[in-house]
Structures are given as structure tokens and as C-alpha cells.
Predict the structure.
Amino acid sequence: MFNEMYLGDDVRPEYKIIADWVAREGVDALLAKRAEAEALFRRVGITFAVYGEGGDPERLIPFDMIPRVFGAQEWRRIEAGCIQRTRALNAFLADVYGAREILKAGIVPAELVTGNSAYEPVMEGYTPPLGVFSHICGVDLVRVSPDETYVLEDNCRTPSGVSYLLQNREVMERMFPPLFASGQIRPVGQYGDMLAEAMAEVAPPNCPGEPTLALMTPGHFNSAYYEHSFLADLMGIELVEGQDLFVDADVLYMRTTRGPERVDVLYRRIDDAFLDPDVFRADSLLGVSGIIAAMKAGNLTVVNAPGSGVADDKAVYTYVPDMVRFYLGEEPILPNVPTWKCGKAEDLAHVLDNIDTLVVKEVHGSGGYGMLIGPTSTKAECAAYAERLKAAPHEFIAQPTLALSTSPVLTESGLVPRHVDLRPYVISGRETRLIPGGLTRVALREGSLVVNSSQGGGVKDTWVLEDGGSV
Amino acid sequence: MLSRTAMGLFWMSRYVERAENTARLLDAGRRMEALPATRAERSTEWESIVIASGCKSTFPHDIEAATQDQVVGHLFFDLDTPSSIASCLTAARENARAMRNAITSEVWDATNEALARFRTMSPDAPHGDLAERLDWVKERGALVRGAIDGTLLRNEGYQFIELGKWLERMDATARLLDVKYHVLLPHAYEVGQGVDYLQWLQILRAAGAARAYRHIYRRAIDAKGVADLLVLNPLSPRSLVTCSDGIAQSLTGVGVRLAPQRAVLNRAYAMRDALHRLSVDEIIEFGLHEWLTERIAEANMLATEISKAYGFDAPLEAEESQVQSQ
């Protein structure tokens, strides 16, 4: 198993900065600092809401003090791979709602797209400004060795978590200024400017001047409300709810104390289904009638565009490397995890024969629910799952159980390895780019592979070193 | 600023002020109950508090036999009573939470802490604690106001906070003064004597104005003097005149851009000017209770018009945004 801090008994050069720092501070001093970090998080209100379990619904995501580090060289590959993948996904979205070349070429089966619940027929024939559908795309990555990084899944709809990334860094900077003063760690604080710039770049064709940007939240009872208000604040734009907005003559307005004010670019953190009761769920109280019409009339850009979810489906995922080749004429830099599509007879046979060694997932599932982890399941559980598989093979995919890399976390007994993943946030406007870093989620329970915050996961600051840094 | 943000700040501020004023009302009841001479008669202090608080319709007990326990239960702890301290602290905190972007962390901490501490209080604790608890509520109000004063930008949002405070306080002072009307005097006493005097004194104390009265008027407490201090005197921080000045000022600060906003500002100034011109004799002649009842209605009406003019409850018409300001 790959521990990112070590190579054999030696500290890898990327982690030298960490090893020196821990040796200098001492574990006890760092543990004491951890309480301070927690107080800071609570102070700024960086919580997520968990309802229905009693007690204060506002929880902190556990923060581990030991940063995860990427060397300059390692990062260049990840960065290039994420940009490449995001460009292909956006090309795919523009294509499936447009000319459908990739379906005509027989590379992606048409029914995977048109039969997909995230496919929105209302978007057919609509070309968003600059052709970008997924302006903010989260690419979830896992490592298994120093040279092997896989894409686990894509998040083309409204990926969340970037506020943790930014706050983690802010807390670390506040507590350990000398680490950052060395200039070896690349900054991430430009995220807000980068996003606001990209949003301005995709202003709609009929935008009358400097575009007005706004961020739309379902409201303060939403579990991610903190992130919504944080991002709006960061960009200096209004945080609006459905009740603040209305569409008049295909133009979106927000209600202000100065009268209606036009909104040109709307970063919505609300699902497609709730966005516009005229087009999607008619019972949505969170959305605004006429948003889609305003968008199609060229008076509004919706970030991310509705229907983007058709590109991040688990079944479509298997075709992303083909998309890279088809649209960009390049070889994928970051490979997919090898995946068996149970809809194919020979793949199904393989999966059924090896079910005790594989991870089997529902194509449309998310958040780690409804999946089978073969190696940790009983024979009976595997057999029961195999029956479900045989009944509807198209609904499932399978992957090998990956030995996820680990990164050290701070505990009472010193540093111990725990499994991690990484979500960089790729922003697309005129260009496709990302800040150097991502959200590292860590499974804090020993041996656990589940990094979700609802199931014992935590977060870490993630460092990308400057060229020549630390090494 | 978003109309909803303006509304949230306005109501956060009103609820903070209302919690404190409900505490002052309860304090008036507590003080009057302690007066010695009323024992032979049916005591009406607590009844008068419920009436003055505007909660007569929700009071679940026989109002003529209202006791301290019942009234404190209803106006302090009951979350179903819209003006109870429990409801006000909760609503203030919810509004603050929804408006986190528009307030500082210190204002948030002050409102958040108030509710957190309140939740640790038990309604079953002995009565001796009532005075202490009411003081605590007043302290929390002072903390929030202090955080607002010390940390908020003097922008539009601040003006809406001020506006909410002054409107709420105007309503509260009128209601507090009106308590006296509802408390029956024992038969043996006449207006202007013993208990009448003591009752006015307790009203002043609940308004935190007993000493101020001495400083300003240098004579024994009487109805005229109290009415002058709490209605017309611009030196008092709670008088109706001071509140109307604050309303006019904060509305000016909010800014006038649309026709209905102009109308509401004119109305606020008209109310203020009328109060400044009035004499205490005119009020007494009209009947203090009747006059106060009109002022409470007037403040409510103004609040409704403000919310309409600034789009709290309905979208502003697009064409009206063309109206020029000053």
C-alpha cells in the first residue's frame, strides 16, 4: 500500500517539509493546536448541517492538521489531466445537446444519453456562451502508487466542498505562518477571483454591460448553506434565494431595496429539478419560473448549465477516455479505474465469477450508498447482490478494489496512515484552469476506505509545492 | 441590497428590541405586584401586563385571575406566544443566521449566544430569579446593540437595523405607558395620591427612567410628568419623540429612490413633526390611553408601508425604478 509520506523507510522528498515541521513542533504541541483550529472553524461558522439525529444540527467536519503534499512534477500531471478531462466532458455535453456526433459515430451508445434521467431534452439545441456547460467541475482522484492516479468519478453538476479547501488553508496559515512564509507552498486564495472572472466571461449574448453575477442557494436550512454564503462573500456577489428572483419578459431580476436589478450570470447551487417549475418539477418552491426561457433567450447564463449531469453518470464515466480521444485527439493523461459494464455479457460473467474481489456499484447511485464491497462482504451478501445483478445487469458496474494511498494523520499516538482521495475544482470560462490544490478527504477510521463526512471522513489542507520546493 | 436582506436585518433588530421590551413589561408587573396597598382589592397588575403586551387573545388562562406564574410562563418561556422572550430570541437568531453575510461575527455571536444561554434556563426555577432573569434579557439586548454599534459598517443594512429598533421601541414605550391605564386603583385611593403615585413610579422604573425623571423635572412624579418624559421629551432614549426622530433619520439614511419610498418618508416626517408640536396637556385632554392606542396603530401602519416600499413582501414594479431621487 502506498503511503504518500514514505518510500520504503525514507521520507519522500515532497514530504520533507512535513517531517521537519512535525519534528520541530512535536506531536503534543500539534495536538494542542488542533483544539485551536477547531475553535477557529466553529467561530467562522464552517459547519455542515445534519438533521434528524438530535442535538445541535450544525457539525464540524473533522480537520486533520497534517497537510497532504504534492510535488511540482506530480501536480503538473494531475493539473493537465484534469483540464484535459474537463474539456472533453464539456465538448461531450455541447455535442449531445447539439450535433450528437459521438452518438452517430457509435462511440457512446445513444440510449445511455437519451435514456438517462439527468438528460434534459429542454437543453437540445441550446449552446451556452463559449460552449461551456460545466463551469465548475470536480474530478475525484485516487492514487495507488507514486505514478498511478485514477479518476474515480466526475462531478459536472454542482460539486461542493471548495469552501473547506479554502478555509483549511486559511486556518493553517493563521496557525503556522512560517510554513507559508518560506514561499514553497503555492497559494489557493485566488479561487474566488478565478471563478468570478470565468462567470463574467460566460456572460450571455444580450448582457447590457458589465455582467451582474449572483449565487443562488436553496436557503439557510440547506446543509451546504455555509459554503454558499462563503462563496458569495468571497466573490462579492449577492446570495439570492428563489423568492428574491423573478423573470419578466425573459430577463431575470433580483428584488432589491432599489427596485429590480438585472442578473446576467447565475451560479445556482440548487439541483436542476428545482430550478424552474415551468420546465422541471412544477411543485418546486425553491426555483423561479422562467429561468430556462431567460437562458434560452440569451439573457441569462446558468452556471452550471442544466443537464450537465448526463456527463457524470457512472455508466457514461466508462466512456470518458473515448471522449478525450474523440474530441481532443489526445490520449487520456489520467486513466479511469478499470470498469466492467455489467450490461455487456462477457463483463457480467467476469463480475459474477469474481464478485468477492470487486466493488460493484449502481449506475445511478451516489454517496457510497447501495454498493457492494466484495472483500469485506459475507458470502451470503455477495450471493444476494449477484441475484440483483442478474436481474438488471445494465444497472451495475464493477471495479477492482483499489489499494488507495494513505497520508499521515495526527492522533494521540503520533502520525498514523489513513486513506485519502482528492477533488480538484476545475473552472471553465474562456480557458480551463484550476487552483493548485484540491480538497483532500481522509477516512479517519483505521482501515476504512470511506471518506464521506457523514461516515467518519475528515479533511486536510492540500499543498502543491513550487518548482524546487522541498525536493 | 436585496430586499430580503433588508427585511432580515430589520426583523432581527425588531426582535432583539422586543425581547428587551417584553422584559421591561414583565418588570413593570413584578414591581407593581410588590406594592403594599392593593391587597384588599382584586389585583390587576398581571392582567394589565397581558393586555399591554397585546397578547390578550393568546393568553390561555382566566385573564382576570392572571398570576405571575402564568404571565411569566406565557410571555417569557412560551414559544407559541409571538412576543414572548423565547420567541423573540429565537426569531432574532434565525434572522441573524440567514443574514450572516450582512452582519459581523460579533453581532452573530451576540445573538447566537443569547439563544444558547436562554435554552439552558428552566421555567420551573423559583420566582426569586425573575428580576435577575429580566436583567439578563436586558443585558443581552445591550450586548447586541453594542456589537452593532461597534462593528457594523454604516451602510444601508445598518440603517434598516436602526429603523427596526426605533419602530419597535416606539410601539413598546406606548404599550408600557398604557399599562397604567389598565391597572385598577384601589377604591380608597384617588388619582394623584399614594398608590397612583407608586404605580407611575414603577412604570418609570421599568423604562429605566426613574432617575431621569428627578433630574429633569425636579418634582414629584405625576401622570403629566411621566407622559411628558416618555412621550415628548427628546432627551429620553425611549420617548415617542426620540423614536420618531430615529425613524425619520434611518429612513433618510436608507435612501429614497422609488415613489412609494418617498411617500413613506414623508409620512414618517409628518408623524415626527406632529409629535414635536404636541403638548402634554393636549394629550391628556384627548385621553392618554386613546392617544397611545392611536400611536400604536400608526407605528404599525408605518411599518407595513415600509415593508411594501422596500419590497419586503411583494416585488417592486420595474417601471417605478425610473423615479429620480432628490
Summary: Confidence is low (pLDDT under 50) at residues 315-326 of chain B. Chain B touches chain A through 24 residues (CB under 8 Å). DSSP finds 14 helices and no strands in chain B. The longest helix of chain B spans residues 3-33.
